[in-house]
Design a protein that fits this description.
single chain, about 300 residues, alpha/beta, 11 helices, about 20% strand
Length: about 300
Amino acid sequence: MSKPFFSVIIPTYNRSSLLNKAIKSVFKQNFNDYEIIIIDSNSNDNTEEIIKSFDQEKIIYKKIETIGNIAKSRNEGIKSSNGTWLAFLDSDDEWHENKLKKTHLVIQNNNIHTVCTNMWIIEQDSKKKQIYRYGPYTDQFYKSLLIFGNCISTSSSVVNKDFITKNNINFNERQDFISTEDFDFFLNIARKQGKFFFLDAPLGNQFIHSMGVSTNLDKHYKALFSVLYEHVFKIQDFAQNKEKLWSKVRANYEFRFILQKYKSGKIIGADFYQLIRILIKNPKNIIIFTLKILKNKFLNIITNIK
């Protein structure tokens, strides 16, 4: 296989019907300089049969044992890739046909290391649909990500392979990072001064359903705090007072956790007392954090009306 521009990396496990849609969305692209790398965590459904129904000249298929660790699958995909840029696609998501063409155009016209597009977020149960806008890129992006949260989606992102290789960046396979290893990955790109470009166009569909790893809020936030703790106390070097930074970061994410519990109808009385404590202890920081959330929601509403 000649060196393609994009290596599309798709990790999967027992999602043959969803995987079928994901692969089809790549083959429908109006930019054809790509390979597809499918890393299968030893599925026992008809995943292999689905994969073999497509043009094999475009596909590299590997089965490995990951024990539910998607970071290991993505890292194997990176090792197996031949492309200049790595495009990540989860097996339960799909792209619009001009995703790679528009992304390629951005890459050709900018000195950047990561491109992230907007996505349609679709709730499988309720069929609710809205555009989620990622970004924006700011000065001191690593610091901003760490304090205010992830604003990047893996399935809508492509990354320059040379950049992550030279900087020894991969997906951390720690068990306590599972479901948030992608946040750690983008944090490390930002920490190494990687330049991000956020393309303001929805070029794919991300499906939210009960099978998703991050749908369990308690487990997801436990993993998220593991990533945050690692960066605050062992990696970042912009703040000397790590305890003070941790207090600020923890308050922001606890605040977000309570909001998500409220949205999902899982909030309890103790959460309201926790919310009051956070607001009293970090009023300025929480106001900034809330304004960022409201700004993003406002832009979503305007976009959806259009």
